[in-house]
Amino acid sequence: MEFNLTQRQQNILLAIVLDYIATAEPVGSRTISKKYDLGLSPATIRNDMAELEDLGLLTQPHSSSGRIPSDLGYRNFVDYLMEKPTLSNSDKELMKNIRNNNTSSLEFMIDQSARVLSALSNTVALIQVPESNKEFIKHFQLLPINENTFVTIVVTNTGKVHNFIVKTDKTVNEGFFSNITGYLTEQLLGTPISNLQKKLNDIITGNQEYDNILRSIYNSIKNNLSYEKNKIYVSGTSNLLKEPEFNENQKAHSLMNFFEIGEKQNELSNVFLAIGSTLIDKSDPIVLIGKEIKISQLENCSLIIGSYNIGEDLSGSIGLLGPTRMQYGKSLATLEEMIKNLSNLLTNIYDVSNNFE
Amino acid sequence: MEFNLTQRQQNILLAIVLDYIATAEPVGSRTISKKYDLGLSPATIRNDMAELEDLGLLTQPHSSSGRIPSDLGYRNFVDYLMEKPTLSNSDKELMKNIRNNNTSSLEFMIDQSARVLSALSNTVALIQVPESNKEFIKHFQLLPINENTFVTIVVTNTGKVHNFIVKTDKTVNEGFFSNITGYLTEQLLGTPISNLQKKLNDIITGNQEYDNILRSIYNSIKNNLSYEKNKIYVSGTSNLLKEPEFNENQKAHSLMNFFEIGEKQNELSNVFLAIGSTLIDKSDPIVLIGKEIKISQLENCSLIIGSYNIGEDLSGSIGLLGPTRMQYGKSLATLEEMIKNLSNLLTNIYDVSNNFE
DNA sequence: TGTTAGCACTCACCTTAGTAGAGTGCTAAT
DNA sequence: ATTAGCACTCTACTAAGGTGAGTGCTAACA
Question: Alpha-carbon distance B292 to B299, whole Å?
Answer without folding.
Answer: 8
